[in-house]
Specification:
single chain; mainly alpha; 0% strand
Amino acid sequence: MDWYEALKAWQDRKLPAEEATRIAEVEDIWGLWELALGCGIDIKLGNREHIADVVEAKRATDRGEKTDLLDVIFEVELIVAGITEVELKRQLRLSWIPTPDGFDFQHVADYERFLALSHKDQLDFLDGLNDDEYQLYQSLLISQAWYRPPEDM
């Protein structure tokens, strides 16, 4: 039984917590899931390969290797929410997610509302932002301008 199967079995109450934590892979990622599992979030909605990529990034960080911590946090948020980056980009109609510019998964609904505004209303909204917020929302607009729906490719 690998870490993903053990974690699913533990969440389904088919595997005692003590046994699940003895499986090294589960123990390595336990901290990532502690809060989500405690809140009753179903981690089985996450994509196994996606979770494995995040786990590897977390391990690299733990080993002292350089990784982009913002990207790791963003990936964990996607997994907990049960959505992939591809699905999120499609939902927001973005070519890329501007995580380096401060994209915060907790504000996805705000970004979606902003992107749905008319161009004039978007420009009016941008006038009231500080420099960091302006950079993020400008990146959202640029990413949206570059977006091509999958069916158009």
